[in-house]
Each structure stands twice: as structure tokens, then as C-alpha cells.
Amino acid sequence: SSGINAEWPLRPGAIGNLNSLTLLDLRDNCLESIPDEIGNLEMLVRLELSHNKLSTLPTTLTPTLQQLSLNDNVFVEYPTVLASLPSLQILDMRNNQLKEMGELPA
Predict the structure, then answer these.
(1) Rounded to the nearest 5 degrees, what angle is found at the Cα of 10, between the Cα atoms of 8 and 5?
(2) Alpha-carbon distance 14 to 63, whole Å?
(3) CA distances from 70 to 11, 17, 101 (A)
């Protein structure tokens, strides 16, 4: 991974104002956390967060989310918020440190 950003690249809260965003690609940024405001992106269908240093997700993500890439992070457990994503079709969690799968979305 060649990312250089150690923290969130946008001003806190700014992400929640991008109301028309359908794809957010933050791969390869060395991010350790994602702001809760990302859950306000009501049109978001694809979220790319692979190749970071994430171990958790915000407690709320938009229910419109269809594709979520979390591969090559440091998750040790299945994020519980994923169980509340009824539109999720593709989930990539390869190359993490998962110990167990937990509750899968219905």
C-alpha cells in the first residue's frame, strides 16, 4: 500500500454535504477511521475503502449502499452495521484479520 494520508482527507462534516455522491473511492489512504457523516450520503451505492488501516465503520451507513470494499484493512470482527444494509449486493473483506463472521445480512 502506497497511501500517504494518515487522517481523514476532508474537513470533518464536509462529507455529509455531498448529497448527490453515488461513488466514494478512498482506497490506499492509510485511513484509520471514517467519519459518521458518511452515513448521510443518501445516494451512495458504492463505497471503496480497501487498502487502509480500518478496524471499525461508522454505526450508520446509508441503506442504498450496494457495493462495499473493505479488503486489505485490519478488521478483526465483522462490522455490525453491515447487517442493516438491505441493498448490499457485493461485500469484499479479503485480507483482513477476521476471527469470526458474526451476523451476516439477511
Answers:
(1) 40
(2) 20
(3) 22, 23, 14
- Phi, psi dihedrals of residue 16, rounded to the nearest 5°: -65, -15
- 47 vs 11, higher pLDDT: 47
Scored b (16 or more CB within 10 A) or e, 5-27 reads: eeebeeeeeebeebeebeebebe
Pull the grid cell for residue 52: 487502509
pTM: 0.83
- Over residues 17-38, the pLDDT tens digits come to 788 999 999 999 999 999 888 9
Instruction: Give me the percent of the chain exceeding a pLDDT of 90.
Output: 67
Distance from the first to the final alpha carbon of the chain: 33
Nearest residue to 70 via CA among 91, 86, 87, 85? 91
